Amino acid sequence: MLAPNLATILTTALTIGLAFIAQLAIRRVFLSPLAHIPGPRLAALTHWYEFYYDVVKPGQFVFKIKDLHSIYDEIYPTSNSRKREKDSFQLRNLGLPYATAGAQGHELHRRRREALNPFFSQQSVFALFPLINSKVQQLCAHLDTAIQKPGGQVVNLYDLYYALARDVVFEYSFDKKCNMLASIQEAAVMRRNLTSMLLTVKLRANLPLLFQAIQYLPASVGAYFTPPGAKHMANLRKDIGVEIQQIMTEKAQGHRTEKRSILYDLREHDELQKPEELPIRLGQEGTFLVMAATESTAKTLGICHFYLLQNPSIMARLRDELFSTRVTSLSELSRLPYLNAVIAEGNRLAFGLTGRVARVAPEETLRYKEYGIPPGTPLSMTTLCIHTDPDVFPDPWRFDPDRWLGEEGKHRLKYHYGFGKGARRCLGLNLANAELLLCLSAVVRYDMELYETTEEDVRFQHDFQVAHPKLDSKGIRAVVRGKLSESH
Asked: What predicted TM-score, i.e. pTM, was given to this entire model?
């Protein structure tokens, strides 16, 4: 019997490969339980459709989805059941399975969330007034120093706000003083490093094996492919690991004190994890808290301040409200209508999590009109589509705090998705609002002018899980000219 020649082997392999691809295409496009759902067939056929718009473009898939809504019907499934789980694809990208945000199942998330909820209630956050206010005053000291420079000094507002948000969440989480506001240069480096890491988030989600392979390369080779942000994240986890070790050492020694911080108290919830896994859980929870509560708060503060400086009439109206009432406490500031309207509009144009926030109904078939969506199907929406819907927000890209005032403003609140909705709504909502209230009420007292900064430096143009402006943006820069008196 003659051995098959190379041409025969290649022909057979090619035929089998083409047959496999053909049956896979038929199954996905025509035989899938989702085949009746409207949408582009190419997207049903291959995941590379999303890869192209998110990695090659880059960060444009959410904008493509918005365009598709003008062609295909949108499906909004409703159900009486609220049991929802996260999509495993998105959780893989997060890489923090022991954190609350990394819990896929409904019950696991509920138990982890219940342990954290007391720390982020409005009452608990209001008690943080001394901490937040001290950081705001430290930030204002930088602006006071800038005033002393001849002709004023250029400051990067994003760097200042990044440092403030980082200091607050780190001290609250670990009961350890964090003083990044003392070194704005360090804050600038860390912010840029984080941005460089976020720029790879879509590539990491689509090609996870590539990044796993990089970890096995020699250090000298792997460093060439590792963005500075990844090194920053490794250092952050290392620093948090040191803090967790201290927390666990005190626990082993039977050292108990009054509740001092989030992680110190969370260590007592042994029932959430096996004892040997508790340090891992605390480390991942702390990592996510620091990451999430820093970038999002700093971004919203920067967007609010930019549009206030760009729109003198809005700035004047906010100053009139603040100067006429002269309130300073968090509870009083939270009742000022125009200040809160400015914050709501800033949050709207910050967009929160900009990627598709997918949820899975694990046990039920969801229905909308004639469409049945089988159990286990990830369903998602994007803040881009919601926050720029002209039927809800006329002229949606315009910064207009008035849209949040009066009865119409109250009605629009149900379309505000910057912090999410439901059981998985952003845990840090109250903390973020407290920082926004105190910080904005302080910085609007300074006379500033934008410096080589345009709307392109704040407007959402790329989705890297959070809104990103033009890729070469240097941040929000302004010249500090002086400080206004309350009689101004």
From this structure: 0.89
